[in-house]
Amino acid sequence: MAFSIPITDVHSWLLAEFPNLRNEQHNVTSLYTDEYNCVAWAAADTERWWWPSQNGYWPEDLPLVDSVENFVRAFQELNYQPCDDASFEAGYEKVVVYVGADGRVKHMARQLDANTWTSKLGQAWDIEHASPQGVECKTYGQVAQFLKRPVKTE
Question: Is the pTM of the predicted complex or chain greater than 0.90?
């Protein structure tokens, strides 16, 4: 189900939930939708809700556990490998995994270019933000792991 709210309300909500966005450029890039989540968005899949649970899509050979290691394994099935940082590397796509204080995965984001990352905010909007740290917060936690894969060439 998708609906729209006044853009000023969206931006007020963003700044309240993600205080780091006050310090960097960001844009809302979609309508509100619950068709997919941040993990699916990081995987470039807008058809499914990815999460290691009975109600979400998850690779069949992996346990239903929300650990960083399990998310790394899921994205390794998409040809991603761990890497050291968020720096832009020509010829590669990068994603980042966030963990909360409890050590469990809370969010993922995808790099678009040297200056832009994109996140799906739960059941809400897609946004673009300037850095992985832009969406660090109490709900999503902190950056925990970067992954990269070669860009697919046609």
Answer: yes
